[in-house]
Amino acid sequence: MKKLLIILFLFGFTGFVYSQIAFNHKPTKLDTRETFRTKPMAKSNVVNTNYHNAIILTTQSDRVKSLEQRVANYNITKQDIFKEKRNTYAINFKDPNYNGRINAYFNKEGQLIKSYELFKNVKLPHAIWNKIYNEYPESVIQKTVYRVHYSIVNGTSKQYKVTIIQNNEKKQVKLDGNGNFI
């Protein structure tokens, strides 16, 4: 019985060693230009170009970008509400998961004049993420809130409010769109 166990052990061991030797090869090099090639964006009829250029081109979260694209493509002049001849029109856009919303305001010519955006639990841009982890190295991000204020007159301001846990303590940090702590 003892000899049988030794023989089985040796066969098992040699098979294991052989598999490591036989498949020990250098990994192939990946061509990163091919691997990370981005898909071309779908053509869209952007109605609100000022908003599109100020907001969407710098947004990194796909979920946020999707709702912002709806606002950029929204043509209020083709809506029934536009026939009411008001000075200002307020339209609310909501994320299907209820984690984001955009309140957009249009003037009587149909031009998007301002918007207020609020998104919860968005993916942070790498620059913001790196800034937080450089300042708070052992922290864990618990939740995020992303706010954008767009105005055709005053420009755009972006703010990230991030709740982190560091050493079992909750802490809130605020950063602007460039990653500067506020």
Automatic annotation (TrEMBL):
Q: Which Gene3D superfamilies match?
A: 3.10.450.360
Top-level lineage group? Bacteria
**What is the protein name for this chain?**
Nicotinate-nucleotide adenylyltransferase
